[in-house]
User: What shape does this take?
Amino acid sequence: MKKYNPYQNMISILEDSAKMLGLQEDEYSFLKYPEREIKVSLPIRMDDGSVKHFEGFRVQHCSICGPYKGGIRYHQSVDLDEVKALSAWMSFKCAVADIPFGGAKGGIKVDPSQLSQKELERLTRKYITMIEPVIGPHVDIPAPDVNTNAQIMAWMMDTYSHIQGYRTGAVITGKPVELGGSLGRAEATGRGVMIIACRMMDHLGRSYQDTRVAIQGFGNVGGIAAKLLYEQGCKIVAVSDVSGGLYCANGLKIDEIRAFLGDHPGKMLEDYHKEGVKHISNDQLICCDTDFLIPAALENQITAENAEKIQAKVIVEGANGPTTVEADSILQDKGIIAVPDILANAGGVVVSYFEWVQNLQSYYWSLDEVNTRLKDVMDAAFDRVFESAEKYDTSLRKGAYILAIGKIVEAQKKLGLFP
Assistant: This one.
């Protein structure tokens, strides 16, 4: 199978969009190069007394529009090019959402399922100790990503605070609510995906009840999106996790599936059995008979190898970079609408921004207020991206990139170069 480089994918879309915007290369070339790339060695003492070394990364892409902002993922596939691409997408995502952050991303090359809780904590605290000189509440604010959660964010915030000598809650978002986390943050990305998917249904004149949805990924993004779309009345015909997928043409009972997984820790979708429910692979899910497809797992899931087989009419990208450049071209030729990641999954960073603001002010909002503000931001971003796409007679992806690039480049012109 062809090896796809997410950073080269990002560069390709950046260049095409900048040209459509009429920019000269020297006006946007700074967006090809992260402002800072950091690689750290993380020697950790394991529970058996041995020492094992891990690699960690933090890439700070662009600070023109505000402090760096971006999650930290723990995954065995993490490498520098992946983190560079993710950091750039964060810059564009924040610009599309019109929140005052630049882009960053971090990661550790590790399979966290192979670590004990104590080993995971030691690894987390070591990582933050190593990147502490370049993060801070007004410099770079990490957050959760793949395989990281509120508990890991709590260790990160605590480690940074001990180094500083005082509690510094605003340095990390996605924390437990008891430690200053925002209500609604845990489900924010999935809620944002639901908001954008429903806006697309409204735009196309589709009723929610008559819309079939397939969702790849059943974690914090896909699982929440499935739950919320199910509650809206959509027919969720397929879901999947790393163990495989489930398909039912008449619609899956998402509440029952979530209850099964919640009642049986360690169980996965492959362990769920119900009459009329067929077990399928992740590849089969991507190509299944559905109206909307929501890839909410990892990048490079929709490729030149499977794009031609996709039956969905609309793709809403819950994951970062799930579609390669080659696949995107095939989708356009097939008339499939792709709602890009830098719009569709911006809900997480939007509510991270809300959490940061609440931490700085020491004034906290109700869940209804958080969700209402999130919907307002996502709706406004949706309208701006559609307006941009229509103005330049292009796809939603290019429309979103044109919107983001235009904002960042204009801000750079106003700042000028220093020194």
In short: The two ends are 46 Å apart (CA to CA). The first helix runs from residue 6 to 20. The CA atoms of residues 316 and 339 lie 5 Å apart.
